[in-house]
TrEMBL record:
Family statement drawn from the similarity comment of this UniProt entry: Belongs to the germin family.
CDD domains linked to this entry: cupin_OxOx (cd02241)
Signal peptide: 1-20
Organism expressing this protein natively: Camellia sinensis (Tea plant)
GO CC, alphabetical: apoplast
Identification of the protein by name: Germin-like protein
Keywords: Apoplast, Disulfide bond, Manganese, Metal-binding, Secreted, Signal
Length: 212
């Protein structure tokens, strides 16, 4: 064992040195394109304190829409200071009867903290399609594992507000209903893969703005 100690010491020094050279931050440079690894870093000389401050989460979202809900993101695309840090936030406003339909975030896990109101939330496991859902009240927190289908809706009689945190600066979003019925995916194909009849598919496409 003693003969390996010098080797381990050298390796530990190299490891410490490699971590010592890591940048403090990588503020997003919006003048350059976004890529799989995120935005390129803004030159340090151009970074200001405002890159690390974001105020939009303090403003109530407009829930006058089809789903009676509004998500206000603080992702890397809106909040350059979180780029490369492995985290982000969002505000969720839900009017009475508001709903965030079944959706997934392929790029990160999510934690939801209820600030006001009552929210029913849940997710579905990918292995056994087990459903985990619960009615959440002010002060409750629920976690949604990365990539799993999940939902939230206002289950009370007054507006609800939640603050959401993600384990990625760009968690991504795909809403199942919109993916199926809000584009030009042919109705015959949708019917084939969902077991819905033609009338149901056409109705949903009409509601969500799809064609085909």
């Amino acid at each position: 064992m003693e003969m390996y100690l010098p080797i381990l010491f050298v390796v530990s020094l190299l490891f410490s040195y490699s971590h010592g050279s890591v940048l403090d931050f990588c503020v997003a440079d919006f003048s350059l394109p976004d890529g799989p690894a995120g935005y390129s870093c803004k030159k340090p000389a151009k970074v200001t304190v405002n890159d690390f401050v974001y105020s939009a989460l303090g403003i109530a979202g407009d829930t006058n829409n089809l789903i009676k809900a509004k998500v206000t993101p603080a992702f890397a695309a809106q909040f350059p200071g979180v780029n490369g840090l492995g985290l982000s936030m969002a505000r969720l406003d839900l009017a009475v009867d508001g709903v965030v339909p079944i959706h997934t975030h392929p790029g990160g896990s999510e934690i939801l903290f209820v600030v006001e109101g009552t929210i029913c939330a849940g997710f579905i496991s990918s292995s056994a399609n087990t459903v985990y859902f619960k009615t959440l009240y002010k002060g409750d927190v629920m976690v949604f594992p990365q990539g799993l289908l999940h939902f939230q809706f206002n289950s009370g009689n007054k507006p609800a507000l939640a603050i959401v945190s993600f384990s990625s600066p760009s968690p991504g979003l795909q809403i199942t209903d919109f993916a199926l019925f809000a584009n030009n995916l042919p109705s015959a194909l949708v019917e084939k893969v969902t077991f819905l009849d033609d009338a149901q598919v056409k109705k949903l496409k009409a509601v969500l703005g799809g064609t085909g």
